[in-house]
Design brief:
Helices cover 49% and strands 9% of the residues. By secondary structure, the chain is an alpha+beta fold. Among the domains are: 28-241, no CATH class; 842-1091, no CATH class. It has a 6-stranded mixed β-sheet, with helices on both faces. The two termini are 62 Å apart. Belongs to the ABC transporter superfamily. ABCG family. Eye pigment precursor importer (TC 3.A.1.204) subfamily. It comes from Corchorus capsularis. It is found in: Membrane. Residues 393-409 have a biased composition (Basic and acidic residues).
Amino acid sequence: MRGVRPHALFFVPVVLSLLPFACSIDGDDYFQTKNPTYLPLVTNLIYSRLSNISAVLSNDINQNLQFCIKNLKTDWNGAFDFAHNLDFLTNCVKKTKGDLTLRLCTAAEIKFYFGNLFVKGGDTASYVKPNKNCNLTTWVPGCEPGWGCFADSNQRFDLKNGTYMPSRTQNCQPCCEGFFCPRGLACMIPCPLGSYCPLAKLNTSTGVCDPYNYQIPPGQPNHTCGAADSWADVASSSEVFCTSGSYCPSTVTKVTCSSGHYCRTGTTAQLPCFKLTTCNPNTSNQNIRGYGVMLFVAMFLVLLIIRNCSDQVLSTRERRQAKSREAAARHARETAQARERWQAAKNIAKKGGWQQQLSRTFSRAKSKRQEQRSFFGLGRSVKVDSQLPPAPKESEKSSTDSKAKKKEPSNLTKMLHSLEDNPKSNEGFNLNIGDKNIKKQAPRGKQLHTQSQIFKYAYGQIEKEKAQQNKNMTFSGIISMATDNDIRTRPVIEISFKDLTLTLRGKHKHLLRCVTGKLMPGRVSAVMGPSGAGKTTFLSALTGKAVGCHVTGSILVNGKNDSIQCYKKIIGFVPQDDIVHGNLTVEENLRFSARCRLSADLAKADKVLVIERVIESLGLQAVRDSLVGTVEKRGISGGQRKRVNVGLEMVMEPSLLILDEPTTGLDSSSSQLLLRALRREALEGVNIAMVLHQPSYTLFKMFDDLILLAKGGLTAYLGPVKKVEEYFAGMGINVPERVNPPDHLIDILEGIVQPPGMTREQLPIRWMLHNGYPIPADMLDLADGLSTGNTNTSTSSDPEVQQSFAGELWQDVKFNVEVKRDMIQQDYSKSKDLSNRRTPGIGRQFRYYLGRVCKQRLREGELLAVDLMILLLAGACLGTLAKVNDETFGSLGYTYTVIAMSLLCKITALRSFSLDKLEYRRESSAGISSLAYFLSKDTVDHFNTIIKPVVYLSMFYFFNNPRSTFQDNYIVLLCLVYCVTGMAYILAIFLAPSLAQLWAVLLPVVLTLIANQDKDSAIVKYFGNFCYTKWALEAFLIANAERYSGVWLITRCDSLLESGYNLHDWNLCLIILVVNGIVARIVAYFLLITFKK
């Protein structure tokens, strides 16, 4: 038994709507009287009783055909609203010999036809099943295709009867035009709007009835061709559909499309073509590729401008800011110079002769004017100091006057004149040393608003600090500085550690062992030793960054057993690698770090002052506006990049600064410049410790303390640098002449140089004995050797226990799991904040991140232009190749669209989190908000989410020209891009860049294949619901299928049923895509803060 499709029930009320409520006598009046006046009355009477027949089976339609009927009334009228033209019904009344009503199919016959039209699997049947009128026993002439018979008169006839099929054996005639008579049913059904159902004509050469391709019964020469014989999907009954290039205002009329219009298959009216398009007569579709070409050219020009000019916006802004900054620095220098001269004049005035000194020091031009007045008798004479140069001659005077008129006085000259005119003026002087009145009148940082005022304030303070450093200050000046309320003090951090030992979990290997000592505030400590001595491990242990290790001993912060993480906001850690944003300038890198890590209560002007002070101290003024640079794009030098790496921690004004090999790769002068900057930090009470490799002697002497580690993480020396040579000399280890002390000591610890009277393994024992520290039990043999004077004592060790391969593998797996567990615990651990610094909240950090990401994207305008250009080409190619197929509603083109947009947008979104993983991990470990970082990236990517569908559709829509609107396609693409962008975040964060790109390519293809598999399999259907591609493709097809009505109803229902789609699920598809995007972002954020690889 072949399966029945439920959507066939829809056509029961369709046909019943055309059946009259009236008795057969209503249609018989015209046949009996042949009175023309009865014809319109009979026709209108029949049609008036048809108008409300849809209510009979509306419940059944809504229950069984809801998936393909969105609005019953609208779809009904779109297919069977013949009120505007009833000519086909009138003509049929004329030709019918008797009552027309008796020729029409009843509800039961209509159900029977549409219930047998399709078999399961989508194959169209050529005839219906045998019934009481047409079977193996009975086969009346009306059972042939295109023919129908009257219902027998000896039975009760009711068109609305859905259970009883009347017998039809009387007066068999050809089917009327505008109707179709299915083979094996012997009754008539009206053709829907958009179809063309004329009477067939016999083709004598082929013996078939054109255009319906059915044959007349053999051996019956009087049996002529009738009308149409079926109405099904377009693949099975394309001859019924109004052909492309023509339109059918009624089911019996076909008109060729006129020039300037186009007519698609199955349309009832011609549609006007757009301007600038060519539409000749008999055009099936307008060619709007010209619009696509114009849009392509316009978009290409826009992208070309973006590629070449995106960075110019920032460059112009930076130049304007640089001019303001240079003017402020010049103003500060001139102010400082004028203040020094004014102070010198005041000091001279106290000693006498102040008039001459003032005149000689500040106003040489005024002295000249006074001399000229004396010479020309224009004023009283003034005694000229003999040390002044002689007055110029007459000719020199005139030339000097003309030059003075042409050259305007400088700012410094104006300032000096204002001082002469008003000695009590405070104009421009906000940096006087010891002048309390001017300090009180100077503006504070919070009172400054404009960029110029902020820079003047910052450079003024820097010039003040320079003056304090370069002059021998008086006792009153020192007291004034000590009592200055503007000087901010940093909290002090002192770290003491005792018997600090780090052991690898599961492997019982010591990375650090029995280290005892203290790091003091205001001192610069150097951690040195041979490779593998645990220098970086030691600093990581102090800052709480060591994972996968078992830590024993004690670490006290300011004498308290507090976690070092409690002071995370005031601790700076400079990694060995130069982890700096290469697509930002030097100043932008430093400014971002200062904004996010300095106190939120600190005024903007004071933050600028901190940044400018760091730039000045690190010698980065010349490259402050230069990009740091990446591998692809050259930037500043390696030494400058290293200093920027250190400056990122200096601008947050730390109390504890840890540096991992900051001088590696620097020359001697750059290293000294860096260390001088760090020593200035130490003068403010900062506790500084750094790892070094063989510094020069000059650099070595600039340190206060030295921590010398031996192999195995043991301490060989910990104390002042000044006493290190004295300590080793007491053991008989003297530094040879012209040999750098740290180089000689490291060579001894490395084993290159043999120490006299002992082995290098005994040096840590010497240190323990020297300080009275306990010696580990496994090292007592080394201590015994020292006590007996035996220098050849060898170290004894426990015999290693051999493990099987499986045992070693299990230990490695266990170790990796414990390391991952420690990392996760460290990420999620919460500690009390004891730093007394309130950094900006998530909202302000989000704003800072947003500004930074926008700058980075503007500088990457070339990449954006390339991405959009690829989308343009993809849209043009796919729109041209994937022609719209009315049978499948363009599913092929939309499948290509889903795959292409998913792939291209994922590849682009990978760059959001793949390229700066190291920078993020450094910032997050410093306490900067991960949520602000994630939201800022996602917010900026919303620009791509909005603009990329427009770019793609601007090509695809105009080259493919589907029936759905541009707006519907854009909304679906918008949700699709939002979804795949979130999925790309997961790949970028969790996987390495190469693997992330591979998965970004595979996922769209694989998921699309799963979503398009046969829906008969419950398993495939279940997994298909989890594929975002299924919902995107369904949304596209629903939007397009909704535009097909009239004669396309059966095709629409068949296609939706085959695909398993529902016409009412368009909003659901969009919601699922958006929800998938949101869930993907939540998962990506969880991975971001959990798996910091």
